[in-house]
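Final report, Chapter 2: Outcomes

The project's central promise was a pipeline that accepts a single protein chain and returns its three-dimensional structure in a standardized token representation, suitable for archiving and comparison. That pipeline is now operational. To close this chapter, we reproduce one record exactly as it appears in the project archive, with the input sequence first and the structure output second.
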Amino acid sequence: MSPNPQWNIPRALRVAGLFQLVCGIRDACALPFLTLYLRQLGLAAPWVGILMGTKHLISACWAPFCAFVAKSYQKRRVFLTGSLLSSAGASLLMVFVPPVDRRLDNGSCNGSRSLTSALLPLGVTLTTTTTSSPTGVTSFPASTGPLVTSDFPNGPGESHQETYSASRGDLVRSDEGFRTTLGALYPGTSRVKNNSWEGAFEVGSATLSRLPRGAALTSPANLSVGQGNALEGFQWTFILSLGFIMLWELLTAPMEQVADDSLYEYLDFVDATDRSRDLWMWRLLGMSTGVCGIAALAGQLDCFLMTKGPQGVMHFYGYSMVSILASVVSIGFPVPIYQQQGLSYKLAKALSLIRGDPRLILLALTVFWIGVITSTVQNFLFWHMKDHGSSELVMGFSVALSLLGEILLHPFRTLLLRKLSRVGTLGLGLGCLATQLIYYSFLWSWWSVLPVQILGAISNGALWWAVEDSIEDLATPGMDRSLSTMFRYYFYEGGCSLGSFVGGFVMMQASLDALYRACCVVLLLWLALFLSVQPRLPQERKINYSKLLAIEGSDTSDSEQGSEQDWLVKAMREEHLDWKG
């Protein structure tokens, strides 16, 4: 090995491991809780799905492009440090997004029940009973503040209640325009029954607290003001959220791919890439630590940072501070000073390779569907847990269980792949993911999600082990990393984008339980199709010379001379004949 300190491999691995640990903590501070924060801003499921789908779409296209530019111009360290510092500032912009209801208070700080705590789960309707007097006048309970669930009286006859009266016809006419506006903003969430006013008045969670403070329900002028305020508040919240998330993702996406390519080429120069295979465990350890730590801190420090607005701003402050720490670590991150040649068209070659191999096509479609299904869990599972009374600490602990299970399962990776084969392991991972989905649809309490989270070690860890091992086996020499990049970004992130776009609208029209069950059915159907098609595909194997040399050196003794040792001659002869043909 050269005495040049550039090739200090042990030091490079230590710095890379520390970098992965810090980046894992950084990502866990905000990303798992992002959709929950958007819900607390007052955005309904379709709009959150659009925001998250846009985020995944940018990641799918932007990260490989930035990695290519950074490599071509030898600016990897600039991209790495710049991405970390700029994303630290971009994440703080989310703190300034106004909620749909500008009067939103942090109820956990002032001790009062706020809109955030009063919102009903999506798919659950608020029913208010109205009574008709013998004179034909309908009485409605009213409050002096926003129309939230805590303001409704517990029953008739309470001394502090006040009632507003209106004729049935006037109330119906004055409410039509308000319902129309809310229906346009939140399709499927606000519905008023057209039957008798002795029935129920249903209001979706996203349409609560839209009336101006102290406004009479019977006043058409006040209802018009409520419509305008609701429309203006929604527009600003959605537009600012979309712009800030797009900017945040544009600045964040290049970091991971640039770091991976840099470390791989640094170690590849001295033929030590196999020593980097366990670094991902440091990232999972950082994520499991960060997701629990930030959840514990958020409940204690949110009140000191912001008493007005939704809870959760501590997640973005934590993300920003850890990003700055990661930028300091990136100064020592191993970056090669040389530039490999002839890599400009590897993604195009990888696409051509996929098109010519039916097994890679089937695997790509499988990864795409994994992204579609996984996005529904990532986007809305915390919503489901929140509806059942879970705190953010319980949510963080549920994520940590899955990540720690993946780390503990890793020593059995080789045994699992050898006993079940890649196809069997992939099928097992899909089956465990389907089991998790059907389990999520039947949650009954705040803790009930925890037991099934251990299956995440198989539905995420073992599933991707099988995918990566299949890519290495099917790829031609030198194309495995390009194929892996294409699968990770174009197919998986593209699937996550489509799943986010569709999942929000499906959830709004049906329910989250129905969405999870539908995803489970789709996944099981694809699993059956995959297991039935896979054995019928041609089973040609690409020759990986490095693997064969390793097997030859470890398994063959000097006394075993004969026909079994001429595999290299046969392989070279076959390749020569293919080249001549």
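Archive annotation: Residues 117-232 form one domain.
This record, like all others produced under the grant, will remain available to the consortium after the project formally closes.
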